[in-house]
Amino acid sequence: MKFNKLIPELSVSDFDRSLDFYTKILGFKIEYERANFAFLSFQGSQLMIDAGNFSKDSPWFTGKLEYPRGRGIHFQLEVKDLAPLLNSLKKKNYPVKEQPKEYWFRKDKKLIGMNGFLVMDPDGYLLMFYEDLGEKD
């Protein structure tokens, strides 16, 4: 397995609940795990979840962790098709924060597009799943 150059590690409050969300609802694959930690992948994206004890004495401690975690950041994950994710979220009665919509951004003389939706994980980390819509003038 090749590791991405940037792999977010999310501090989670309930490891089993987060692992269920990422694997059983969203379909992430467990690449490897140990106690309260898992390295996950999904269609080329990679992330880690960790419910370790980050005391104030730990070099990993950055401040009090409270809901929603990850304020001011969201993670964009490109997928082949949004429909299976949306169907799974609906089947599990898991709330979608923003339904799919198109986004278009200017890059030089072209517009590049994506269709995406937002969902918050159990700890409030904001995820945007999107599919590529290609380019237009």
Chain-wise SSE layout:
Layout: E1 9-11, H1 15-25, E2 29-34, E3 37-42, E4 45-50, E5 74-78, H2 83-91, E6 98-107, E7 110-120, E8 126-136
Parallel strand pairs: 1-4, 5-8
Antiparallel strand pairs: 2-3, 3-4, 6-7, 7-8
Nutshell version of this structure?
It is built from 2 helices and 8 strands; from the N terminus they run βαββββαβββ. With 137 residues, the chain is mainly beta.
Please characterize this protein's 3D structure.
This protein has 137 residues and is mainly beta. It has one domain: 2,3-Dihydroxybiphenyl 1,2-Dioxygenase, domain 1 (Roll). It has helices at 15-25, 83-91, and strands spanning 9-11, 29-34, 37-42, 45-50, 74-78, 98-107, 110-120, 126-136. It has a 4-stranded mixed sheet with strand order 1-4-3-2, covered by helices on one side. A hairpin with a 2-residue loop joins strand 3 and strand 4 (45-50). The longest helix has 11 residues, at 15-25. The protein is globular. The protein starts with 8 loop residues before the first strand and ends with a strand.
